[in-house]
Amino acid sequence: MTDKTLYHPTPIIETERLILRGWEMRDLPAYTQMMADEDVCRFIGGTVRPDMAWRQFAGLAGHWALHGYGFFVVEEKATRAFMGRIGPHFPVGWPHLEIGWTLVAAAQGKGYAVEAAAASADWLFETQPGLTKFISVIDPANRPSQKVAERLRMTNTQEIFEVFGYKTEIWEISRAAWGDGRAAR
C-alpha cells in the first residue's frame, strides 16, 4: 500500500539577511497584526479580522500540504523577527502559479522582498522541473510591488486579472529568462 499522505515539509532557505521557513503557531500573532495593517493590506484585498487571519494562516500552512510549495514565513536572521510571507502559491482561480510577497511595514523598502522572492524562485524552479514561468499579480497603483517585479526582471504582460473586486496586472518571467543570469539574485 502506498502512502497517500499530503504532508510536504517546508524547506528552510537562508539568504544573506533572511530565513525562509515553514509556518508555526508562534507566527500567528505577528501574522494577525500584519493582516490588520491598512497600509500593508491596501493592495491585497484589505485588512482582515483576527478570525479571518487565522483562516488565512491555516490555509497558508495547508497550501504546502496540498501542493508541496507555498508562502514561506520570512524571518530576519539578525533578530528572528517575523517579516512577512513570500513565495509561490496557486490559489483556485489564479491564471498561473504566482510568487507573491507581503511584508510588515517595518520590513518594506529594505530589499527584503527581492531577496526572499529571488530565493524562493530559485528553489521553485529547482524543485518544479516542468514549470515554464511564474507570475505576480500586482495592482496597477502598487508602485512598490512593481519595483520588486522590475528588480526580479519580470515583465508586465498588460494582461488584466480581476481579484478582490478590482483589476490587477499580470507580471511574469520565464524559466529561461530567470536562468540566464538576468534575474536579480
From TrEMBL:
Pfam families in the record: Acetyltransf_3
Coiled coil segments of this chain: none
Xref: InterPro entries: Acyl_CoA_acyltransferase, GNAT_dom, N-acetyltransferase
Domain N-acetyltransferase, first and last residues per copy: 18-185
SUPFAM superfamilies: Acyl-CoA N-acyltransferases (Nat)
GO molecular function annotations of the record: acyltransferase activity, transferring groups other than amino-acyl groups
Protein name per UniProt: N-acetyltransferase
Organism field: Aquisalinus flavus
Origin organism lineage: Bacteria, Pseudomonadati, Pseudomonadota, Alphaproteobacteria, Parvularculales
